[in-house]
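Forwarding these from the shared drive since the link keeps breaking.
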Amino acid sequence: MRKISIYYSLVIGLLLCAVTLSAAPRLTIVAVVDGLSTESLNTLRPYWQKGGLRTLNEEAYQTSIAFPHLVYGGNETTATLVTGATPDRHGYTMDAYLQRRGRNVRTMLTDESVRGIGTSLHLSAQDLLTPTMTDRMRLQYPEAKIYAIGIQPQATVLLAGHAANACCWIDPETKQWVATGAYKEGLPSAAYEQNKNGRVNDMASHLWTPRMAIQTYNYPTAQEKKKSFSYDVSKVLTHSPEANTLVIELALAIQQSEKLGMDATPDMLMLHLNSLSPAAKSDRIASAEHEDMYLWLNQDLGYLMEQLDRRIGHTNYQILVVGRPVLGTDSHQLEEIHMPVQRFNVDRAAALTGTYLMALYGHERWIDGAYGQSIYLNRSLIEQKRLNLETIQRQVANFLMDFEGVQIAMPSHEAVRYPLLGTSLCKRHTGDVVFMLQPNWQLMQDDNNTIDFVIDEKPVVPLLLWSGTLRPMPQEALDATHVADLIFQ
């Protein structure tokens, strides 16, 4: 009889263990960090005595992920992370695109049908064609409470997806939390309270100086060794440590006011953070101020985890931290290894292409414009003149192939033959002729000598997933389209 009792006790124990292992965490935090790099984390690890990055490095599942599409330094990477799809499917190819009607550059996620709250921006996730992490959470748990808080508007709206309760970000001009009316709760009450109390403005009044003696940093520049560094935070707010602190503070305030993670229904916090300093020229740390950003980020993430341990319990949440490539490799670093970076001006290329078509077909405006790696033909004129669109696409592609720096050019419908390019384009926003540049060529949009797009092929970023409950993690290599599945496995 006693053996039977022990047997049933073991069975019940195993069943309870299985339930514990398979139960979804009460609260999921996803933090996308601009510029976070594996190399920087590995280099700085020995210098963190404590903090969130130290804890994650010691206890979290860690891997590096690559993006299976071209990366331009915009939020096309954020869209891929949250949807598990590539740009040809989720529809977010760049932060902006050329709108044929009116021939003007339009910011992605712009939605004039929704109001801005405290901001002139009108944003929603309508341009996203596939479900996001938050959409999956809402479908699986209709009563879930889901909030997105961030530094930059487009990134934060992408993190919110279609189904968040609310989404808000920092306005560096007004020094307030602002939001979009695309979500049912508008500006969260906790953000309203911080605005009323002037919290963002208080943080912006700080002076950012090194938290340690300058000689103790690993990467001080020659200028920093002489004069250290100092910033008026109000002028660099969104690229200062204070911005990350504000996001973490509001996340914890919302967690407390909305009781996230305090009942059986799983909830979600989506955070947009930054590791890049104002003077950063690449995602790789090359200055004391850039290193200082990591030190503060480590502290902020540590505070977040400590507070969640105390409020909802160590085993009741999970946190995923993933990098987002922004600046790529510094051109000066490439030049040091004798790989000079060349620049390709897409507007100038479009103007020359227009002149070429005039020579062939007459003095008309044959080009509507250019943006990114696309040339947009004047389709209305081509149709009016009863010309063959595909013939002109082919002529323009052949013409572009003669430009220095162009590796390949083709009519846009042929891009599917080239996997890397095909997965990077969306039919809704792509021009009639597309091209790829040769390695070490950077894209300029106009003559102001500014690099507008940092084109990178398959950049690698770190991913760290800490969970208070034990569960199996994948052993195989992952790419950015697998990140969303990690949350729901």
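-- next protein --
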Amino acid sequence: MEEWRGLVPPLLEWYRDNARTLPWRSDPTPYHVWVSEIMLQQTRVAAVLGYYARFLEALPTVADLAAVDEERLMKLWQGLGYYSRARNLRAAAWQIMEEHGGIFPSDYQSVRALKGVGDYTAGAICSIAFGLPVPAVDGNVLRVMARLTGDGGDITSPAVKRRVTGELAEVIPTAAPGAFNQAMMELGATVCLPNGAPLCDRCPVRDRCAALAQDRVDQLPVKAPKKARRVEERTVWLIFRRGRAALRRRPEKGLLAGLWEFPNELGDTMPAEWGIRAASDSFGGTARHIFTHIEWRLTARVVRAAGEELPPGWVWADGEELRTRYAVPGAFDGVSHVVERELKKGE
């Protein structure tokens, strides 16, 4: 990659003049960079901004994160999805408190050893917060590099990622590693866009781009096709009684582990073992939610319960408790308007 050292100056200049103003860039402490990078995994920047501000307001330090109870943590994370990220954050905060005396570690191996921190996140934290010349290779960077070099390798392949990481390790500037990594990410996020629609006329290194020179921009990067998602037809039972809705907690392992949800099952029959007597039962609409490997197609049934009894472990929650206490995942956003409407009726 010796011949690619020339991309560094124009890339850094472009980043200085065009970088988006983001709170974790304005105050790049290790804790702030870490929280932002975990939130940004599989989530758009625009969606993260509000969550990031609320999260840091509630948990401004590693010690606060380590001490927070899970119910509060899940509520702060509600809507961001991939909830294991939040649990890993807290577990890593425990590590920092117990193994590093509450001080965020500043060497790559110790950062990489934190729960939920992979190669990319460790590289981002170490380069941005500590100035260490370590590459941070995410999907944006892999796309940029595939086009710049004309590499037709599958960017979902670990071997390709290792090769790109090694190539960037040879050119990353020791004087500005954080700026370089963020410039590569920013280029992929705002210019070298996915799906064959990059803004090549705005690219500061277009004169070095093999894909542009070879008219292969729409062919790169190469990605292995994803497996088809499994489709599940589920009925979500919105059960109400005196201005409250029934919630149950999901199992501690698996999809949406440990979160509260509106009861739902495959098929269209309410399980008899729930023991819920319905004073009324009506159609409440349909919704859809897509996970990485599963698609839920939901049909809502609005049930007015004839009594107070619920299965063990279930709770009745009013509107205020749903807003402030119980973390219900975004998979149920498509029926939330029905819940709000029905709760108002019962007030």
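Residues 84-99 form the longest helix (16 residues). The chain has 15 helices and seven strands.

- D.
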